[in-house]
Amino acid sequence: MSSEQLSAQAPTAIRPGRRLGVDVGTVRVGVALSDPESILATPLTTLERDRRKGFDIKLAANLVHEHEVVEVVVGLPLAMSGGHTDSTRAAIAWAQGLQRRLAAKGWSVPVRMLDERWSSAESHRALLQAGVSRREHRDKVDRQAAVTILEAALSMIHRSGGLAGVEVPPADGADAGSGAHQTTVASAETTAHPEGDLS
């Protein structure tokens, strides 16, 4: 095999920098952060959902800026059949809202979505193995789900040398806080108040 063919098959260089993993729930949004080399994923914070004013989206955008994040990966909660549910549409709308917020602030950070059908079960299992009682799961499971999503994304990125998940579809003017947008997204393989401008 020629050197040109080997070069063509080599994975593209991974963009250095921290990545943010997000699990969008009905009540809370779990957030996880990677190290600058995008090797490890650790829990960062939990945000309270704010469907009316989108305050959680503003806080998430501030976290992206504060930690100099180079890419955001939002969990895509598909049905086991691969179809969409209300939770799927809500997560898509939330990701669209974050994408718009980042663009409005002039922060060029891509937002992608990754199939998270197994993240909840894996998160509960990880917490039990860590000695966290089921009674305490509510306060920790959202962040752990975000860690699970981010770990899957980092694994895909290092394995392929490219991007994890799929692009967020255009919002077409939908309200990011409502979770009612009906956009279709293809499946991919698989309460902090930081300082900053919230206007």
UniProtKB/TrEMBL annotation:
Residue stretches of biased makeup (Polar residues): 181-190
SMART domains: YqgFc
GO cellular component: cytosol
Location of the YqgF/RNase H-like domain: 17-123
Compositional bias of kind Low complexity: 171-180
Similarity comment: family membership: Belongs to the YqgF HJR family.
PANTHER family: POLYNUCLEOTIDYL TRANSFERASE, RIBONUCLEASE H-LIKE SUPERFAMILY PROTEIN
The protein, known as: Putative pre-16S rRNA nuclease
